[in-house]
Specification:
This protein is of the alpha/beta class. It has one domain: P-loop containing nucleotide triphosphate hydrolases (Rossmann fold, 3-Layer(aba) Sandwich). The protein has helices spanning 17-28, 35-43, 47-54, 56-70, 88-97, 107-113, 126-140, 153-164; strands at 6-10, 31-34, 76-79, 99-104, 145-148. 33% of the residues are buried. Bound molecules: shikimate-3-phosphate.
Length: 166
């Protein structure tokens, strides 16, 4: 698998997608893009404000456009949002475009890492958060590779590179 030139990091909120993307980018010397950051820059609004003022449907439409805009990027790591890979069209595009890595962290880790500070609209209600956690696993399981994301970041990066055969 040495011809891989694009890696997508997927997984639930709090799995460490953005942090692992930055560490992996430094390690490989590749560009790093964060879907949520791009959405916020494009809309000039925080994710929380987009959900609140425009609704989740609007957020998902922008998310899809941002993802499509990133398709041409090569030697690139993309940190997605927790819902990006759950959408079947997004999922098909990502699976065809690069190596999709599921950062799989246990529910307890997600709960501990994601504060209810209003920045993540879908984390405000813990019951809904837990329900989403379980409901989404079937989608994340469709990733090419699964990595235990409860480990320290550097270890996750090493394991990922091992799995890819680098
Ligand atoms: C979401 C996860 C968030 C962000 C938005 C929706 C989700 O990203 O895209 O709040 O549907 O799980 P992170 O996974 O980076 O927190």
């Amino acid at each position: 698998m040495t011809d891989i030139d694009k890696i997508y990091l997927v997984g639930f909120m709090g799995a460490g997608k953005s942090s692992v993307a930055r560490a992996l980018g430094r390690r490989l010397g590749w560009r790093v893009d964060d879907v949520d950051e791009r959405i916020e820059a494009r809309e000039k609004q925080s994710v929380a404000d987009i959900f609140r003022l425009r609704g989740e449907g609007y957020f998902r439409a922008v998310e899809r456009e941002v993802l499509i805009g990133l398709l041409p990027a090569r030697h690139s790591i993309v940190a997605t949002g927790g819902g990006t890979f759950v959408d079947p069209d997004n999922r098909a595009r990502m699976l065809a475009d690069g190596l999709v890595v599921w950062l799989d962290a246990p529910l307890e880790t997600a709960i501990a890492r994601v504060p209810r500070d209003g920045r993540r609209p879908l984390a405000a209600d813990r019951a809904r958060f837990t329900e989403l956690f379980w409901a989404r696993r079937a989608a994340y399981e469709l990733a090419h590779v699964r990595i235990d994301a409860s480990r320290p970041i550097e270890e996750i990066v090493e394991r990922l590179l091992d799995q890819v055969g680098w």
